[in-house]
TrEMBL record:
Location in or out of the cell: Cell membrane
Record's keyword annotation contains Nucleotidyltransferase: no
Chief place where the protein resides: membrane
InterPro entries: Pra-immunoreactive, RDD
Gene Ontology, cellular component aspect: plasma membrane
Keyword Cell membrane on entry: yes
TM segment ranges: 187-209, 215-237, 273-292, 328-357
Alphabetical list of PANTHER family matching this protein: PROLINE-RICH ANTIGEN HOMOLOG-RELATED (PTHR36115)
Ranges of residues in domain RDD: 173-305
Keywords carried by this UniProt record: Cell membrane, Membrane, Transmembrane, Transmembrane helix
Domain of life from the UniProt record: Bacteria
Membrane topology annotation: Multi-pass membrane protein
Organism encoding this protein: Dokdonella koreensis DS-123
Name the UniProt record assigns to this protein: RDD domain containing protein
Length: 362
């Protein structure tokens, strides 16, 4: 049961967005579907340990949750002219016993639009509590009447986690982590590609020595194609494997998933690889999008419906709420990469300047 209350000392502006991420929901959906109806049942199960783990996770974020037996059905309660729930009858009885709710709080079984005072269905609570004023049934009552019907088939359907993985820094890998992983993968591919190029280069030199220009051109073309095929298979096979990640991504604690956090297939991994061509067309802006989009997606991720997330993210499991720190070697790789890029740019500018100076002397 999510009570809709905060644990002492916690800030609502921090807790509710974190809880939305934990439930894999958008914050607006959490507010509209859960908090607006809290207290509300968020999980029914016969596995007590699973429920206790869920409760502990909610408490760790800073929200209050309670466990109650699900016997005697699920009900909505009309509190402050707003429908709350669904909740078990035992929860309503507990709230009435503690004096949080009046004894004649209107309740309705899930699937019914008939509201009855709780004291009328539970006579033991009719005397100890003073009668409450008649609820102002207008628009609020109309909305309340619709609420049980909406849950007629599945009392907890509206509180089930959203299918799409939500945004969140503890879920999605940002630009610099992905850059470090990509540089590592690029280095490994360069080493293997160098070996392949060496073998094919020897063949090309042999063809030239034998006077076969066609053979040399064929070897050159094969060298170019083999580089593309090698990179394609390296990324596509690993990102669609059980590991869901290349060696570089594994070193950074990352993996590739679809929009729902699931493993992708070889076809989608192939599309993601060749989609990087589009990401790099305009000054690599497609790659830079991974630094500021909500779910840290590059252009190729948006096209193929993929995400790069932290290893702890698993389908059907509570989402992590703490962002892992960047490994030290990730920082080293990124710093060296930026320095090399700066040196390359300065070298290019210096070369252009020297060329201009030489041309000016003629």
């Amino acid at each position: 049961m999510l009570t809709g209350e905060l644990s002492p000392g916690y800030d609502a502006t921090l807790v509710w967005p974190a809880l939305a991420g934990y439930f894999r929901m958008e914050p607006e959906k959490l507010s509209g579907q859960l908090l607006a109806r809290a207290p509300v049942t968020i999980k029914e199960s016969e596995d007590l340990a699973k429920l206790q783990n869920l409760q502990a996770g909610i408490h760790a974020i800073g929200a209050e949750a309670e466990l109650h037996p699900a016997g005697e059905g699920a009900f909505f309660a009309l509190v402050d002219n707003r429908p709350r729930g669904p909740v078990p009858r035992a929860f309503i009885a507990e709230r009435v016993r503690l004096g949080y709710w009046p004894g004649d709080v209107p309740i309705a079984p899930v699937g019914s639009s008939t509201w009855t005072a709780f004291s009328a269905t539970q006579p033991a609570y009719a005397v100890p509590f003073p009668a409450a004023a008649e609820p102002a049934y207008g628009a609020a009552a109309a909305a309340a009447a619709e609420a049980p019907a909406a849950f007629a088939t599945a009392p907890v359907a509206a509180v089930a986690p959203g299918d799409l993985l939500p945004g969140g820094l503890a879920i999605h890998a940002g630009f610099w982590r992905r850059t470090a992983a990509y540089v590592m993968d690029g280095f490994l591919l360069a080493v293997v590609g160098w070996v392949v190029a060496l073998v094919l280069g020897i063949g090309m030199l042999g063809a030239l020595a034998g006077g076969s220009l066609d053979g040399a051109l064929g070897a050159m073309m094969l060298q170019w194609v083999s580089g593309i095929v090698l990179a394609w298979l390296y990324f596509a096979l690993q990102e669609s494997s059980a590991a869901q990640a290349t060696l570089g991504k594994r070193a950074m604690g990352l993996k590739v998933t679809d929009d729902y956090g699931r493993r992708i297939g070889f076809g989608r991994a192939t599309g993601r690889f060749f989609g990087k061509i589009l990401s790099g067309l305009i000054l690599y802006i497609g790659f830079m999008l991974a630094g500021w989009t909500d779910r840290r997606q590059g252009l190729h991720d948006m096209i193929c419906g993929t995400l790069v997330v932290f290893r702890a993210v698993e389908p059907g499991q509570p989402l992590p709420t703490t962002r892992p720190p960047m490994p030290w070697y990730g920082w080293v790789i990124n710093i060296l990469t930026v320095l090399l890029l700066c040196l390359s740019v300065f070298g290019l500018i210096a070369g252009i300047g020297m060329l201009g100076a030489q041309l000016g002397n003629y």
